[in-house]
Amino acid sequence: xxxxxxxxKVLDMKLAPDNIEKIFSALERQISLRTGERxxxxxxxxxxxxMLDLVPRTTKDVDVLAWVREAGxxxxxxxxxGFPDWLEDSAAAVARDFGLARGWFNAGPASQLDLxxxxxxxxRLTAREYGxxxxxxxxxxxxxxxxKLFAAVDRNDYHTQDLRALAxxxxxxxxxxxxxxxQDVSExxxxxxxxxxxxxxxxTVAEQL
Amino acid sequence: xxxxxxxxRDSLGERLLSVLWRHWSVLGVSTHSTMEDRCPVDLEALxxxxxxxxERDRRLPKxxxxxxxxxxxxxxxxxxxxxxxxxxxxxxxxxxxxxxEGLDRLRELVSASSLGSSRRAAPSRPAGPATAQIMLRxxxxxxxxxxxxxxLLSGVTNSSxxxxxxxxxxxxxxxxxxxxxxxxxxxARPGKASAAGYxxxxxxQWLALLDLEGPxxxxxxxxxxxxxxxxxxxxxxxxxxxxxxxxxxxLRDLHGELATTAVPWDLTMPDPRSxxxxxxxxxxxxAVLTLISAMAGE
Lengths: 209, 298
Hints:
The structure holds 2 protein chains of 2 kinds.
Chain A: H1 20-34, E1 39-44, H2 45-51, E2 62-71, E3 74-78, H3 85-98, E4 105-106, H4 112-115, E5 126-130, E6 134-138, H5 141-152, H6 158-166, H7 170-183, H8 187-199, H9 203-207
Parallel strand pairs in A: 1-6, 2-4
Antiparallel strand pairs in A: 1-2, 2-3, 5-6
Helix pairs in contact in A: 1-3, 5-6, 5-7
Chain B: H1 5-26, H2 43-52, H3 59-70, H4 77-93, H5 103-114, H6 132-140, H7 144-152, H8 160-167, H9 171-183, E1 187-188, E2 199-200, H10 203-209, H11 221-236, H12 244-253, H13 255-262, H14 281-295
Helix pairs in contact in B: 1-11, 1-14, 2-4, 2-11, 3-5, 4-11, 6-7, 7-8, 8-9, 12-14
């Protein structure tokens, strides 16, 4: 049983390139204590950026996008509608043990599956195995560009910094922009996107939208 | 020196057995162990722990049977069951379990014993704090009075519910004892503002009368042994066996219980917030071994 009273008091640690592997390994072992079930998940955001060494930065949480159903070498993504109790409890134990923020392991981006993913998304996933019970699929660089552009358009925060660090080519940015326009089809959004691209040095991409 | 999960498990097991043998030694069992001489031995807690550790040392359940056969009428079924339930529940909460081989036989013996043979045990060793529970049960009979008085002789003030938790009796039974003693002027009952609970009056005179030197060092053995046995059992079974991270996590889970357990021994447990993840294993496991060593008289 995890004493949650300690969770918010501890070290206020963040996930960083030098501890992410330990933390996923710990999560797998906590899962093994509670269930025999295997867990396979898609992770996006700062954790995936750091683990693939695309943008080596710290993050406070792990954004879980979807479940992965593995069959015959193929992967199929499935919408997350909340985590089972044993996974919530496992994550809470890891949060307490490593001084991570409550909610460090969350399905915040799960609704993206309803809105649609870039073509070929599954083929660009990179799998990492932890023990016998946890597989973490990290989204590819191209998909990071797509998601980061969508997140950054109307903000000037770490998403914009991540996008700049990914340094997409004009062709990548054009593909990303066209996909982003499928996520929000409104005219005002298209104008905001074009403005953003212009300010970020992608004026020629903006002209093509 | 680095402590491995396996060496922690082995040392914990050995020292827990030493503690039990020290306590059995107080009860007249012939052993090579030095006798517990500072804290009152708790019969029911010792019996539950003896069965829980029976797999590790087959002699223990056997000698418990032999002791109960000779010393009938000294133990209480309800208290034994309460402690057994607590340990079982604690183990389940922390995802481990005990075999409990021999428990039914022990229950039979305790139950037969509780039904009242006229034979009573006299402490087979000189009187002192370690045999105080037996001495007081001989004096008051097999009911809450002996254990409540023993607890109050430690100089504490506590509510009836708190005393019931510490002594493993039903709160109503403890309350009735405390009220009758308050009426008799033996106890001070909780005041409206000043006192937080019941306390014994003329403690020094009681200690002198019972030939006890200084306040009794009260140890809640039911709780203490349950916590340590749970750690031992968890460290013996997969997936925790050999896993420093999972053991460190368990030691964080049980930090509150361990910290409380360490107080009477003037020891402290390291703050779980001081070391992230597996790094907590070394200081915490070391502290648990220091604690159990103190109990084992090392």
